[in-house]
Every structure is written in C-alpha cells, then in structure tokens.
Amino acid sequence: MNTIHCIPSLIIAAALSAAAASCSHGSADKQQSAAPDSSEIQIPEADSAMNDIGAISQAIASGNASRFAQKCSYPIERPYPLRSIRDSAEMVSYFPVIADDSLKRVVSQAKTSEWQSLGWRGWTLHNGEYIWYDGDVYAITYLSPAENRMLDSLRRDEINSLDPSLRGGWTPVTVLVSETDSTVYRIDRDSVASPDADSLSVRLAVYPPRSNRHKRPHRLLRGHSHAEGTAGARSYTFRDKRGTRASFIDAQSSPDDTPTIIIVTAAGDSTATPVTPAYWRDLPE
Q: What φ, ψ does residue 131 adopt, rounded to 5°?
C-alpha cells in the first residue's frame, strides 16, 4: 500500500494502551481494509457520489489510466511485498496490472444499486470486494491474476532468503526498521490460515544492525494477530521462551502517529521503538 505501509492479550494493560494510542503497516493481505480516520472523511452526498463513481467506472472500463489516476487518494496500498502505489504517475504505469478484463467487466456492468454507502468508510462495490471510495478512490481490494502471480513469486523469494529453519509454512506480513538503530523486525504469518481470519499465528524475527539476515535472527518470538474494530486494523502480540514480550498495531489512527513496536522484558522493563515500514529486498546486505 503494496502497501507493507506496519505492526494486544499477552502485553500488560498499560503497555497495550500505549501501543493502541501510538502505533500504526502495511500489509494485510486484503487491502487491507485501508479505512482512514472517520473524523477526516467527508462522505459525498449520494447524487454527487454516484456521478463521480460513474466517471471512475467509465475510466476503468475504457482503460483511461490518467483519468483514473486523478481520482485516487495516495498511497494506494497493495499486499506486502507488492509495493504501494505512491502517486498518479505510478498509478498510470501500474494501471494495466490492476485493471484487467475482469475488473473492467465488473465495474462496467455494475448497477448503481450495487454500490453501497457504509457510513464513514465511504462507498464500495460488492461489499468491499473491489474498490473503496470516499470522494476519491482510497483503496483497491481487488487483486488481478497478474498481481497474484507477482505476489506469490515475491513471497516465495523472500521466505527462501531466510535461514532454512524459518522457511516452511510461513508467509511475509511486513518488515519494519527501527528509527533509532536500524534494527530490522520482520513479521510472518502462518501460510495455511486465511489472511482474513480473526486470529492468526504469527512470528517476529529481530535482526540487530549489521547482522546477517539470511541466518537465524538474534531473537524469534511467536504469537497471534487479531483483527481490531471496524477499521480492519490488526494487533500483534509475541512472546519468546525467555519471557520477552512484544506488541505492534498495523494501522495508523492519525497521520501524525508513528508506528511503534513495544518490547517488554521478563523483568518488566518496557521499550517503545518507533519503526518505519520497509521492503525486505531493499535492505542493505
């Protein structure tokens, strides 16, 4: 939103409260509900929205990439490790990948009644399966076959770059880099479960600066991820055998929020580390 775009249960109540207030990535697999803060969305009146949606649908159906790109609010996130679409120029380039014949057909054949208004989340087609609109297109949940092929290849390559003991049964979720010392945190999920399940088995691998990311991580914590509220944010909680705990929330509650990982040692010492979403393949060796 790709679009990673980052990372509560096992954490003590105080730490969980702090995480929820300050944390925000990137990746879910579905786009990713991508619901902005309700206080910032001005839902267009029905007639105006329908006229605008009609123009957007026509741009998609006719393959008018430039017109469609002008009606998007960026970034448009894609499931990690696909890259988020950052601006209109990138959308024009990427448009043929997203707007395949299937999407064009669905959009062009959709009746006005098939677009639903869901309050602060805006308008959507077929219950969120394709597009979300709130004055502009702010999320595209549809994944074309071409994107799915790219996604499968990137996930496979990324997991195969890890230590052999970490490869089987896992799918990348997001990668985060500490803003203080460049420590790398990667989150993977159980590859068998549906990415949209309410609860997922997850793990957190920690790689200190200058460590070999193709070897076993300095620390490996296991845990669970849960969907939080109507916005579709996911919370992550982890624990290792030494009693160290960690938590992360993957959605921003406001544009000023900094994604944060909270680490609590077995002795109860807590550290909140601001992090930046990153792509595994972009990190220096």
A: -145, 150
Q: What is the pTM of this model?
A: 0.79
Q: What is the mean pLDDT of each run of 10 residues along the chain (285 residues)?
A: 35 34 37 40 70 94 97 96 97 97 95 88 92 95 97 97 96 96 97 85 97 96 86 87 94 65 96 96 93
CA distance 157 to 159: 6
Q: Find out whether 60 and 158 touch, Cβ atoms under 8 Å.
A: no
